[in-house]
């Protein structure tokens, strides 16, 4: 058991060493084991780069994403979705009840969604503003106002001033 923990902590080093010495398949195997044991955005990026280089990413990606818990590892799925510019997937992730989003996950998704999904972005800003207001405190109120202003601007851009006025009232 102790040697397994030790091997796990050396996998990133072994992966880098293997890649530097012309063994991309061994590096890929090491990063895969690392991701399976301790999923991280760093390991995912290495997997994507190495598997893409040998034409294996299309089959490996679904397997790696399938390892992630949709609630407890939603924060990692958001990182991946935003990095891959998949705003629709990021919106789906933040919409999951109980999803662990990280400190600013909802706002990062809202910001990314402003251009392509303004209605969803507005809802995300409002949801986060409501959460901050409920938490109370001067800093929370200031941040909530900033989110509400962005939501208002998006609603205006969509021509939904009446809906915004009703929400504020």
How would you describe this protein?
This protein is mainly alpha-helical. Helix content is 76%, strand content 0%. It is built from 10 helices and no strands. The chain has helices at residues 2-20, 24-37, 41-53, 57-66, 74-83, 87-94, 105-113, 118-135, 138-157, 161-168. Helix 5 (74-83) packs antiparallel against helix 6. The longest helix is centred in the C-terminal third of the chain and has 20 residues, at 138-157. The protein is elongated and about 65 Å long. The N and C termini lie far apart (61 Å).
Overall residue-averaged pLDDT value: 94
Strand content: under 5%
Q: Give helix % range.
A: over 70%
Structure annotation, total helices: 10
Terminal CA distance reads 61 Å
Structure, briefly:
This protein is mainly alpha-helical and 169 residues long. The protein has helices at residues 2-20, 24-37, 41-53, 57-66, 74-83, 87-94, 105-113, 118-135, 138-157, 161-168.
